[in-house]
Amino acid sequence: MPMKEQLLVLPSLQGVRKNDGRIVVTQKFVDGMTQYVECWDGPVKAILEPARAASNNLDNKCVVPASLPFGLELMSFRDRRLTEELRESAVVLGGAEHRQNHLAAACRRAGTPFVCTTEYTLATREQIIAAEEWNPLRRWRRAWWERSQERANVKSVRAAAGVQCNGLPTYQAYRDLNPRALLYFDTRTTGDMMPCEDQMETRLARLLQGEPLRLVFSGRLIAMKGADHLPPFAAELRRLGVPFTLGICGAGDLEDGMRAALAQYDLCGEVLFHGNLDFKTQLMPLLQEETDLFICPHRQGDPSCTYLETLACGVPIVGYANEAWAGLLELAGCGRKVTMDDFRLMASAVARLHEDRELLAKLSLKAWDFARQHTFEGTFARRIDHLRECAGLTPALVS
Predict the structure, then answer these.
(1) pTM
(2) Count of C-beta atoms within a 10 Å radius of residue 187
(3) Residue 54 CB: number of other CB atoms within 10 A?
(4) Could you tell me the end-to-end alpha-carbon distance of the chain, in angstroms, rounded to an integer?
(5) For the domain that residue 255 is a member of, what is the CATH number?
(6) Are 309 and 321 found together in one domain?
(7) Structural domain contains residue 399
(8) Which residues of 27-41 are buried (b: 16+ CB within 10 A; e: fewer)?
(9) With bands split at pLDDT 50, 70 and 90, how would you rate the model's confidence at 131?
(10) What are residue 333's phi and psi, to 5 degrees?
(11) CATH number, position 155
(12) Using CA atoms, how far apart are residues 62 and 92, in angstroms rounded to an integer?
């Protein structure tokens, strides 16, 4: 019987097929799959479930499947054809969520190890519902469904050959359920994208001169990211007498209301909307060269890559104490957390750092040092090693 070599990846991300055969995915997905190809000695394939409409992800792009270095197909995870894909793979990397919770058992029947990734704890999913759903009855129904679904998630994690936990919240929640639990932090930042010592010295020298603080928020302008708190936060900063500018990068449903609120506060001069920025050529240079502090009013603890990518630029974070940021801050010590949904406390934390520029510079260096230990390449190398262990593969299979 020939040795199975394929790595099969089943992401939670869905794909949209265009009439010309192209598929809408995200640049982050393509980058991640390409890195699997670089690390895995054998074929790599991704199967995505089809969606009718593209998500509002900021880095959506259309790809031609035949031009990619990995296989890409759209298929329901309940499709009978998936059984053959499972059987032909050396290991399957999927998720612990409602569309995939049957796959650990399906892989066992196919004789293939299943490794699941986890991102959202039950608490985080309930926070997302609270931020998105204002109707009390619908909110209760969605929360009830999530609580019942959590039992299936736990069962899937227990049955898997291993679990890869994106961020501390799910690692702390699930690590005792599976003997092969790996903690990692999601990031798109490669080592060569990080600022060098000279760049850090130049930026911190300006910071220590007492120039107005350059603040940045990046992400979708939606309720669960707390974007609606940015205007009153900025108004509170001005009341506290903090000289600042605030750059808002991204787009979303709340943008018009935010612009109207800033006009009411007469803050249009201090707060600028940059729109959607290309990650490598626009957002990263902005963070590395023109940002002193990142503002993160996330109302939920999803393990956003924003955290590590911001720290990789040597930029500390002041944010709400959701479980993802609170846990990461405990490890890295490179920012400040405040009570959830309290933009006044967040402004006060920024004001204190404005008064203590030496401390802010030290936090910047801590952020930079921590992120250097968790680069894109290093993270994928650890994940590939973990997949090897879970699949019982020899070093000869995986480079």
Answers:
(1) 0.89
(2) 22
(3) 16
(4) 23
(5) 3.40.50.2000
(6) yes
(7) no
(8) bbbbebbebbeebbe
(9) confident
(10) 60, 40
(11) 3.40.50
(12) 25
Q: Strand pairing of 23-26 and 16-17?
A: antiparallel
112 and 256 share one domain: no
DSSP-derived pairing of the beta strands 114-118 and 162-166 = parallel
Contact 112, 91 (CB under 8 A): yes
Q: How far apart are CA 32 and CA 169, in angstroms?
A: 22
Q: Which residues does 205 contact at the CB level (< 8 Å), separation at least 6? A: none
Give yes or no for a contact between 158 and 180, defined as CB atoms under 8 angstroms apart: no
Residue range(s) defining the domain that contains residue 267: 192-372
If asked whether residues 210 and 303 sit together in one domain, one would say yes
In a domain, residue 228? The reply is: yes
Helix axis angle for 197-208 and 357-372, nearest 10°, is 160
Q: What tens digit of pLDDT does each residue of 307-348 get?
A: 999 999 999 999 999 999 999 999 999 999 999 999 999 999
Calculate the alpha carbon distances from 190 to 16, 18, 218, 277, 312 in Å.
Answer: 28, 31, 19, 18, 9
Q: Is residue 398 part of a domain?
A: no
Q: Are residues 42 and 86 in the same domain?
A: yes
Tokens of 16: 């949209």
Residues 365 and 292 in one domain: yes
Q: Is residue 275 located within the same domain as residue 346?
A: yes
Examine the domain organization and report whether 179 and 256 are in the same domain.
no
164 CB-near residues (< 8 Å, 6+ apart): 93, 115, 116, 117, 118, 182, 184, 383, 386
CB atoms within 10 A of CB 324: 28
Residue-level pLDDT at 121: 93
Burial class (CB in 10 A: 0-12, 13-18, 19+), 255: middle
Distance between CA 74 and CA 14 in Å, rounded? 8
pLDDT digits (tens, 9 = 90+) for 6-61: 999 999 999 999 989 999 999 989 999 999 999 998 999 999 999 887 777 778 88
- The beta strand positions in 96-142, using DSSP E, are 114-118
CB atoms under 10 Å from CB of 398, counted, come to 19
Provide the token pair at 305.
Answer: 């890559």
Reported as type and span, the H/E element at residue 343 is helix 343-355
Determine the Cα–Cα distance for residues 72 and 64; give it in Å rounded to an integer. 9
CA–CA separation, 378 and 371 (whole Å): 11
